[in-house]
Amino acid sequence: MSKSILLLLTGDIRSLDPLLQEQVYKEFYRLVYPLIMYIMKDPPAVEDIIHEAFVLIIRKSPHQVDEDRLISWIRAIARNTTISYLRKHKKKRDELLSEDIYIENAVPLMCNLAVSTEALVEAKLMEEAIVHYIHQMKPIYRQVIYLRWIERLSYKEMAQKLGVSEEKIRQTLHRSRESIKRKLARDWKVSES
Predict the structure, then answer these.
(1) pLDDT tens digits, residue range 2-49?
(2) What is the pLDDT of residues 137-173, one digit of tens each?
(3) What span, in angstroms and rounded, lies between the C-alpha atoms of 33 and 31?
(4) CA 161/CA 51 separation, integer angstroms
(5) φ and ψ at residue 148, rounded to 5 degrees
(6) Most buried residue, 50, 51, 80, 91, by CB count within 10 Å?
(7) Alpha-carbon Rg of the chain, whole angstroms?
(8) On the CB side of 177, how many CA atoms lie within 13 Å of its CA?
(9) Are 34 and 75 in contact (CB under 8 A)?
(10) What's the half-sphere exposure (Cβ side, CA atoms, 13 Å) at 95?
(11) How many other β-carbons are positioned within 10 Å of the β-carbon of residue 25?
(12) Is the pTM of this model over 0.85?
């Protein structure tokens, strides 16, 4: 963790050197931008939310947050600020197009139905959890998931690229999916169907 983020806990960022203030803000920005952008998909709104979350963190800084939990605490504040923003701007939320909401197999969404903010945020958080689970996997599992769903290679192409049999690819892909399903069932109380 960078020392810049730790400076957020001082609660008095105005007393810092202007260059250091800028560095703290940039580090904070890099930390929360992907999370907020993932939920909002609206760059101007993301900028507003980042500013609001930054001010909130400075005001509510607990001064005694464990370093290991600091990043999680900051992300929670950013996520909650995003939810508040969505609630305040309900008209904009209702105008979201169904193609703006991309969640495959995580939470069943029906087109042309209003989806609550909480459901959208929960679905986004579930996607984040799945990505986190993937990052915890063995490198070979991560690699086959990447090749299959990002590069969209066939089993044959994957086998050639990795120098293994197609059966090994099927088996590895199956195991990786089962691992994710088990973790979802454990952490999110989702059935393993």
Answers:
(1) 666 666 665 566 677 788 778 888 888 888 888 888 878 788 888 999
(2) 888 888 888 888 777 888 898 899 888 999 999 999 8
(3) 6
(4) 45
(5) -75, -50
(6) 50
(7) 20
(8) 12
(9) no
(10) 7
(11) 16
(12) no
- Which residue, among 39, 18, 37, 40, has the nearest Cα to 29 in the 3D structure? 37
Q: Where are the domains of the chain?
A: 1-98, 137-193
Pair of tokens at residue 117: 């903010």
Residue whose entry in the numeric block shows the structure tokens 């909650």: 80
Architecture field, domain 137-193: Orthogonal Bundle (1.10)
At 102, list the tokens: 């991309």
Burial class (CB within 10 angstroms; exposed 0-12, middle 13-18, buried 19+) of 66: exposed
First to last CA, the chain: 39
> Which pair of tokens denotes residue 183?
């973790």
Q: How far is 72 from 95, CA to CA, in rounded Å?
A: 31
CA dist., res. 188 & res. 38, Å (int): 20
